[in-house]
Design goal:
heterodimer; A: 144 residues; mainly beta; OB fold (Dihydrolipoamide Acetyltransferase, E2P); 5-stranded antiparallel sheet; 8 strands; 6% helix; B: 386 residues; alpha/beta; Peroxisomal Thiolase, Chain A, domain 1; 5-stranded mixed sheet; 4-stranded mixed sheet; 14 helices; 11 strands
Chain lengths: 144, 386
C-alpha cells in the first residue's frame, strides 16, 4: 500500500444541492451569499442554508450579499488534517467567524499566525480561493 | 421513591476488552458485551425480549437484524441515532418499555471497531452540514471542532492546559485499575504538555484513541430482578435534550444546562447527593462543560474543581472511574455506553480494584456532532436498591 502524494489529493468538495447552489455560485463569483428570513418581525441572517427560518420557522428566506466583514469567535491551528487533501496546507488556522449580519461561518484564515496567539475578536474580511475544479471557497483574512 | 421508571431494575453490566485492532465484527462485540452483562445478572439470551443497540458500523444491518442474528424474538427494539448520547437514551427507552409491560429483559449495548482513518471517514460524511460546510473548509475533524470549544473555554473562564492535564492524568490513573482499558502506563504532566500537537490547543492526550470494543447493561422488570436475587439498581431519573439552545453554537454549558433542573427534580436529589460521575469524555473540555452544566461545580469553575478535588477512584468525587474514553479508548458509539457500564458496575459493587464507595451516581452522554457542536446531551441518575 502506498501513501498518496499529499499535494495530488483533492480536498473534500462540497456536494452542492438545489438548496445550497446560490451560496456556491456566489462564492465562484466572489460574493458571500447568505440567507435572511423574509419575515419583517424576524429578519435574521441564517447560515448554513435552510429550508425555513430556524428562528421563527417562517417559510420564506431570501438570499443577499453579505459585506464579508466579521470577527473571530474562536480558532485552532490544524496540524493533523482530517483528510489527505489538507496535508499540504497544515499547519493552518481554522476558525468560527461571526459575520457582521450575525451568523457563524467556519473557514480557514490564510496568513494568520499558527503559533497559537489568541485571535479571538479579531476582525476579518472574506476572500475566495481556488478549492478544486470549478470551485472557489470562501476564506477569511485578518484585517487591522 | 416513586420515580418515572417504577418497576424497572438494572441487573448487570458487561464489557469487552478494548483493543487497538481486532478482527471481531460489531455483531460479535455486541454478543460478547451483552453476554457478559447477562451472565453477571444470572440471565441468558433466551430470556431477552428487547434490544437497544448503538453502533456506527452496523449499517446496512440494524437492530432488527441483530435480533435475527442472535436469534432473539423481540417485543422492543431501539437503535441509537444520537451518537454518544445514545447509551443513556437507549437505557431510558428500554426502561419505559419494561415499565409499560412491553417487555421484561432488555440488553442495552453499543460496540464499534474503529481506527483513526475509519473514524475520520465516518465523520467526513456524518451529516449534511458537516459534509458541506465544515469538512471541505478544513475543520480538522472532531479534534478541530473541539479545539475551538477548548480555546473558548480557556479564554472565557481562565482554564489552563495544566487543568485539562490534571483531568486526563486522573483518568489515566483510574484506567490503570481497569483490566479492559487500552492504556496501561501512567501519564505524567510532562507527557501531557509535550505530546504531539494535533489542533491547538489540543495535543495527543486530549484526543480519544479510536479502537475496538463494546459495552452493555441489562434491564429487567422488578419481578425478574427479585427472582434473580442479586444486587440491582433503579433509575431515579433520565433526561435527554437535543439542539439546546437552538441556533446558539457557543453558549455554555450547552445541553446539560438545559436538562439539569429537570433531572434533579425528577430524581429527588441534587448534585451533592452523588457519589461519582461518569461523564462523556471525548475531549476534556466537554467534561468541564458537563461539570458546569450538571451542577457538580458552579458554572465556569470546572478547572478550579479539578485543581482542588481528587477525581480518581481514591478521591472525594471520582469521575470516570474506569478511565473513560480518554484512557480506556473510544470504540466508536460504545463511547456513549462506556460510562453507563462503569456507573452500573460501580453501583452493583463489581468494580474490583477500582471500586468506589457509592450508592448513587450520575452517568452522562453526548453526541451527534453537527454544525460546530454535538446536538444531543443526556444524563441519568442511578441508585442501588438496598
Amino acid at each position: 500500500m502506498t501513501t498518496p502524494n499529499a499535494a495530488s489529493v483533492l480536498k473534500p468538495q462540497p456536494r452542492v444541492t438545489e438548496l445550497t447552489q446560490p451560496y456556491w455560485d456566489g462564492a465562484n463569483d466572489g460574493r458571500l451569499m447568505i440567507q435572511r428570513c423574509a419575515s419583517p418581525a424576524c429578519g435574521k441572517a441564517v447560515f448554513y442554508p435552510r429550508v425555513c427560518c430556524p428562528y421563527c420557522h417562517g417559510a420564506e428566506l431570501t438570499w443577499f450579499r453579505a459585506t464579508g466583514r466579521g470577527s473571530i469567535i474562536t480558532h485552532t491551528t490544524v496540524r493533523r488534517a482530517h483528510h489527505d487533501g489538507f496535508n499540504a496546507s497544515a499547519p493552518y488556522v481554522f476558525a468560527a467567524v461571526e459575520i457582521e449580519e450575525g451568523a457563524c461561518i467556519y473557514a480557514e484564515i490564510p496568513g494568520a499566525p499558527v503559533d497559537g496567539v489568541s485571535l479571538i475578536g479579531r476582525p476579518v474580511l472574506v476572500d475566495f480561493v481556488e478549492h478544486g475544479p470549478g470551485r472557489r471557497m470562501p476564506v477569511f483574512r485578518l484585517v487591522d | 421513591m416513586a420515580g418515572v421508571f417504577e418497576g424497572v431494575r438494572i441487573v448487570g453490566a458487561g464489557q469487552t476488552v478494548y483493543a487497538k485492532r481486532s478482527p471481531d465484527t460489531v455483531q460479535k462485540l455486541l454478543y460478547q458485551a451483552g453476554g457478559a452483562a447477562l451472565r453477571e445478572a444470572g440471565l441468558d439470551w433466551s430470556r431477552v425480549d428487547g434490544l437497544a443497540i448503538t453502533s456506527f458500523m452496523l449499517p446496512p444491518d440494524n437492530v432488527a437484524t441483530v435480533a435475527e442474528h442472535l436469534g432473539i424474538e423481540a417485543r422492543f427494539l431501539f437503535q441509537g441515532l444520537y451518537g454518544g448520547a445514545s447509551g443513556v437514551i437507549g437505557m431510558a427507552h428500554a426502561a419505559r418499555a419494561i415499565r409499560d409491560g412491553t417487555c421484561d429483559v432488555v440488553v442495552v449495548a453499543a460496540a464499534d471497531a474503529f481506527d483513526v482513518s475509519s473514524h475520520n471517514e465516518m465523520l467526513d460524511r456524518f451529516n449534511g452540514s458537516v459534509r458541506e460546510f465544515m469538512s471541505p473548509q478544513g475543520f480538522g475533524g472532531a479534534n478541530g471542532m473541539f479545539a475551538l470549544h477548548t480555546r473558548l473555554y480557556m479564554e472565557r473562564h481562565g482554564a489552563t492546559r495544566e487543568d485539562f492535564g490534571r483531568f486526563c492524568i486522573a483518568l489515566r490513573n483510574n484506567a490503570l485499575l481497569n483490566p479492559n482499558a487500552l492504556f496501561k502506563s501512567p501519564l505524567t504532566m510532562a507527557d501531557y504538555l509535550n505530546a504531539k500537537p494535533i489542533a491547538d490547543p489540543l495535543r495527543l492526550y486530549d484526543c480519544v484513541l479510536p479502537c475496538v470494543g463494546g459495552d452493555a447493561i441489562v434491564l429487567a422488570s422488578e419481578r425478574i430482578a427479585r427472582e434473580l436475587g442479586g444486587p440491582s439498581l433503579r433509575i431515579l431519573a433520565s433526561e435527554e435534550i437535543h439542539n439546546h439552545p437552538a441556533n446558539e453554537l457557543y453558549v455554555t454549558p450547552g445541553g446539560w444546562g438545559g436538562l439539569a433542573d429537570r433531572l434533579y427534580a425528577r430524581a429527588g436529589c441534587g448534585p451533592r447527593d452523588l457519589h461519582f460521575a461518569q461523564l462523556y469524555d471525548d475531549y476534556p473540555v466537554m467534561c468541564f462543560v458537563q461539570m458546569d452544566g450538571l451542577g457538580i461545580c458552579p458554572p465556569g469553575t470546572a478547572h478550579r474543581f479539578v485543581r482542588e478535588t481528587d477525581i480518581t477512584t481514591r478521591g472525594a468525587f471520582p469521575i470516570n472511574t474506569g478511565g473513560g474514553q480518554l484512557s480506556a479508548g473510544q470504540a466508536g458509539a460504545a463511547g456513549g455506553t462506556i460510562g453507563v457500564y462503569e456507573g452500573v458496575t460501580q453501583l452493583l459493587g463489581r468494580a474490583g480494584a477500582r471500586q468506589v464507595k457509592c450508592k448513587r451516581g450520575l452517568v452522562a452522554g453526548y453526541g451527534m456532532i453537527a454544525y460546530g457542536r454535538g446536538l444531543s446531551s443526556s444524563a441519568a441518575i442511578l441508585e442501588r436498591v438496598e
